[in-house]
């Protein structure tokens, strides 16, 4: 942000982070933040897999009028605590002269019922009020290999934890962000859409969908977010041909240890590109896993195929059509038709 001349010319800034390990250091340096004279749109997206008690504090500092004086549009997704809701409501971002149009997706890790929290959730900014949707996810237990981490404790081994999701309508993010644990561990899901009629709210922008372990994505339970004919990118992890993927307009398919899913009879014929990542322990060559590639001949729009094999070395002929390149460092194969 402080790079010359960006402080004077940058109009849009979009940040996507998996974790926020350096929040404390960033806050200590807040006095060095430049004044972004031309910035009118700011997006700050952070994974829901971890939580720092100062996530909202960082967002609030970055969006202050002394740093972003002409900010008009703010989109953010973070994990917060109950006390942060009061701070958000009183923040200049939601109340001051800039009249910022705010969209958010918030996770609150709190065992209290959703109705006790919802009354404190801001409905957009004062100048741009918005309807909100919400949901409660219940987890029977937390898997040891994917703990939800905070600055104070790990959550694995705990029983019956709740997480609450609050989001402004319409859903303006291109994907539905993964929660702290895989979908398969969700034991109960309650969706609370806005009291406003869905057809009075602008359409969702959701264009990406994730499915893991053949388990339906929670997105499918959000009828006002999930519009199947708008989904153009599908990510499958550890799935097979039984996975329900009735998405006719998917053009980009990303498979991780899910080679058998190519045999699905519901695979979209609109697919233009496929990326396949296979780890050696999930690849069973004795069972002719490679036969799944025959399905590619039935995809008339396919133009690009990328295969990454982890922990395995292949020897491929490089002088045959279609054009093939072997990436030696990561044992990857790139194929263009």
Secondary-structure blueprint:
Layout: H1 6-9, E1 12-17, H2 23-28, E2 41-46, H3 55-62, E3 73-80, H4 82-89, H5 92-95, E4 101-108, H6 114-118, E5 132-141, E6 159-168, E7 186-192, E8 208-212, E9 233-237, E10 252-256, E11 273-279, E12 304-310, E13 323-327, E14 332-336
Parallel strand pairs: 1-2, 2-3, 3-4, 8-9, 9-10, 10-11, 11-12
Antiparallel strand pairs: 4-6, 5-6, 5-7, 12-14, 13-14
Task: Give a brief rundown of this model.
10% of the residues lie in helices and 28% in strands. By secondary structure, it is mostly beta strands.
- Helix percent reads 10-25%
Order of helices and strands: HEHEHEHHEHEEEEEEEEEE
| Share of β-strand residues | 25-35%
Count of DSSP-assigned helices: 6
From the N-terminal CA to the C-terminal CA, the straight-line distance is 41 Å
* Poorly predicted regions: 145-158, 197-201, 313-318, 322-326, 328-332
Overall mean pLDDT score?
Answer: 77
Principal-axes geometry comes out as: globular
Number of strands: 14
Structural class determined from secondary elements: mainly beta
Alpha carbon gyration radius = 22 Å
Describe the largest sheet: 7 strands, mixed
For the largest beta sheet, what order do the strands appear in spatially?
1-2-3-4-6-5-7
């Amino acid at each position: 942000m402080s790079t010359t001349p960006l402080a004077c010319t940058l109009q849009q800034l979009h940040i996507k982070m998996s974790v926020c390990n350096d929040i404390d250091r960033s806050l200590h340096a807040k006095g060095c933040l430049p004044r972004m004279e031309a910035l009118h749109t700011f997006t700050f997206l952070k994974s829901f897999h971890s939580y720092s008690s100062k996530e909202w504090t960082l967002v609030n500092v970055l969006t202050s009028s002394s740093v972003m004086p002409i900010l008009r549009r703010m989109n953010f997704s973070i994990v917060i605590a109950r006390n942060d809701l009061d701070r958000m409501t009183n923040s200049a971002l939601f109340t001051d002269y800039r009249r910022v149009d705010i969209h958010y997706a918030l996770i609150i890790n709190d065992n209290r019922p959703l109705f006790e929290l919802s009354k404190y959730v801001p409905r957009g900014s004062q100048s741009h009020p918005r309807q909100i949707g919400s949901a409660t996810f219940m987890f029977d237990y937390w898997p040891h290999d994917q703990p939800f981490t905070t600055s104070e404790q790990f959550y694995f081994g705990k029983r019956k934890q709740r997480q609450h999701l609050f989001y402004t309508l319409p859903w303006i993010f291109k994907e539905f962000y993964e929660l702290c644990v895989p979908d398969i561990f969700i034991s109960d899901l309650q969706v609370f859409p806005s009291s406003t009629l869905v057809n009075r709210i602008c359409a969702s922008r959701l264009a990406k969908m994730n499915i893991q372990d053949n388990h339906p994505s929670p997105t499918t339970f959000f009828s006002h977010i999930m519009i199947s004919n708008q989904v153009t990118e599908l990510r499958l992890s550890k799935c097979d041909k039984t996975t329900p993927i009735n998405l006719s307009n998917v053009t980009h398919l990303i498979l991780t240890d899910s080679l058998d899913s190519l045999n699905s009879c519901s695979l979209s014929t609109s697919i233009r590109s496929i990326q396949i990542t296979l780890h050696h322990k999930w690849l069973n060559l004795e069972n002719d896993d490679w036969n799944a590639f025959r399905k590619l001949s039935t995809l008339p729009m396919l133009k690009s195929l990328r295969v990454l094999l982890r922990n395995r070395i292949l020897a491929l002929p490089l002088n045959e059509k279609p054009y093939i390149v072997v990436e030696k460092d990561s044992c990857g194969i790139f194929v263009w038709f």
